[in-house]
Amino acid sequence: MSVDFIKTLEDWIKEETAILELAKVTKFDNKDRLSLILSLQAAFNQISKIAKGFQNWLQNPYITSVLDQEILKKTTEETWEVMKKLLEIDIEHTTHYIEKVKKGESPQGLLLPEQKKQEGSQFYL
């Protein structure tokens, strides 16, 4: 196996470990709305990066041929738990947003398509 390949993997682990340590000590109690939005964006960027990395690995027979049944089972079970939690978060967030929009709490100028037709606005979701 290439020394460069091993170095790349070790660097990935160092970077991921540093991000994990930062995430463990990050608190959200006194953050304003903008800070929370930026924190969510950072989290989802990291989640996307991890998911893309896993997808690349799973499409590479050189890598998947080395992984044994035990680690594949463990990783599959853990990943499905993360997926279920993200789905729960997404459903809760989207449901909350729908309730706000139905109450007319969408930002001024951003209207649903049916509101656009009624009010003649050019900006809508």
Written description of the protein model:
With 125 residues, this protein is mostly helical. The chain contains five helices and no strands. The N and C termini lie far apart (51 Å). The mean pLDDT is 88.
Q: How would the blueprint of this fold be written?
A:
Blueprint: H1 3-25, H2 33-58, H3 61-64, H4 69-102, H5 113-119
Quick structural overview:
The protein has 125 residues and is mainly α. The protein is 75% helix and 0% strand.
Task: Please supply descriptive tags for the structure shown above.
125 residues, mainly alpha, 2 domains, 5 helices
- Low-pLDDT residue spans: none
As a percent range, the share of strand residues is under 5%
Mean pLDDT: 88
Helix content: over 70%
Domain tally: 2
Order of helices and strands: HHHHH
According to DSSP, the number of beta strands is 0
Based on secondary structure, the structural category is: mainly alpha
H/I helix tally = 5
Shape summary: elongated
Radius of gyration: 21 Å
- State the major sheet: none
Compute the separation of the termini in Å: 51 Å
